[in-house]
Amino acid sequence: MIVVDRLTKRYRNLLAVDDVSFSCHPGQVVGFLGPNGAGKSTTLRILTGLTPPSAGTATIGGYLYRDIPNPAVQVGTLLDASAFHSGRSARETLRLSGQIMGLPPERADQLLDLVGLTPGESRRRVANYSLGMRQRLGVANALLGDPSVLILDEPVNGLDPAGIHWMRGVLRGFADAGGTVLLSSHLLHEIELIADYIVVIGQGRVMAQGPKESLAGVPGSQVRSTDDAALVSALAAAGLRCRPSTEGGVYVESSTEEVGAVAAASAIVLTELRSAGTGNLERMYLQLTAGAQRGPAAGPPGVPYPAGPNPPGPGMGHPRGVA
Ligand SMILES: Nc1ncnc2c1ncn2[C@@H]1O[C@H](COP(=O)(O)OP(=O)(O)OP(=O)(O)O)[C@@H](O)[C@H]1O
């Protein structure tokens, strides 16, 4: 279990991390989400012992990273995929890491296979890798020691949609097996696909946190019909709140079942009916981080979301190590 407790990091006049608290439980994939410069990397660097905090603590399984015996087999980290020695191949990189951890050379080959780097690619120099290939190598390196905790900084950066899908599978499988995953990103949609608990950070402060579904609110419906005016009247008459959708058509603050029932009862032909997904989450993210975003603030004004404690997740008490 990862516990970040009232963590603060000051660089001269800049509060890079400001009284940040959250926790990640075994079985959970926690997304640490925030715009550029929000303080994500600094928090992860403190967590992994690379930067000392100004105040507060960040522990893994109750230990400071530096106090964990043989940390590489307890905590897998990927903080900078571009940091691998460019003159070595992926295979050499992993074999060297494995040697330091006391692992047999075959372990490196297993991991290369797992992350989808082909034997040919694995023998090429890292200097010639694409960003996505480096990320795959980084994930392989993080998983090499069979850790119970993963800490990954921007791991989906540079991955194509298939790569993001793959990453989700790897991390979901890891968490479902009782592992703890903390990953950062400045991209909401990527975190949304992968994480099941989200901590939103902006200007060094936690602005919201909670299970993805609760942050997203009750999902509404996106609907179009051959007669939207009649549909809106029917929805209003049935007591369903709706408004013109930013995507065109109508957004209804109700489930697709309720909307479909109203349309059927009013004999209105629907041409589209689907869950509006996590549009609420996007609005919330843009709203919360508006002051911290670079460029013009986006998103409508609304009610701020409170930061809340992270309730215990499933599978607490990881049997394998420091989780
Ligand atoms: N060593 C340092 N010295 C001074 N300021 C620093 C240092 N490291 C980070 N900062 C500052 O702290 C703030 C937070 O940086 P951090 O790298 O943690 O953000 P981030 O959320 O990871 O951003 P990004 O998504 O762009 O990677 C930034 O303003 C950054 O310039």
Automatic annotation (TrEMBL):
Biased composition range(s): Pro residues: 298-314
One MF term in the entry's GO annotations: ATP binding
Residue stretches making up the ABC transporter domain: 2-228
Domain of life: Bacteria
Keyword annotations: ATP-binding, Nucleotide-binding, Transport
Region (Disordered): 292-323
SUPFAM superfamilies xref list: P-loop containing nucleoside triphosphate hydrolases
UniProt family annotation: Belongs to the ABC transporter superfamily.
This protein's name: ATP-binding cassette domain-containing protein
Organism: Gordonia caeni
